[in-house]
């Protein structure tokens, strides 16, 4: 049986990122390899990729205080 488990070493023990599918109280041999974090994009690229993926009212940006804090909506019509 072979299973790959990603873990974090906290200085004393290995802590798995998710519960492993291993039998408790069983001895295992582990091989340790360093895993470099994969960073492909900067924050702007991540935000750009998320544009349009959140469902929200069409006036979300102009009425954000109303949706976040419950304040009355602002009148956005031009009174010229």
From TrEMBL:
Looking up InterPro entries in the UniProt record yields: AF2212-like, AF2212-like_dom_sf
Q: Which Pfam families match?
A: AF2212-like (PF01954)
Q: Which domain of life is it from?
A: Bacteria
Coiled-coil residues: none
Quick one: where's region Disordered?
58-80
Return the protein name: DUF104 domain-containing protein
Origin species: Chroococcidiopsis cubana SAG 39.79
């Amino acid at each position: 049986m072979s299973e790959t488990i990603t873990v974090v070493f906290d200085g004393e023990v290995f802590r798995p990122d998710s519960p492993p599918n291993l039998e408790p109280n069983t001895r295992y041999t582990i091989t340790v390899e360093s895993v470099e974090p994969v960073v492909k994009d900067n924050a702007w690229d991540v935000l750009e990729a998320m544009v349009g993926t959140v469902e929200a009212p069409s006036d979300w940006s102009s009425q954000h205080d109303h949706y976040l804090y419950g304040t009355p909506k602002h009148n956005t019509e031009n009174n010229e």
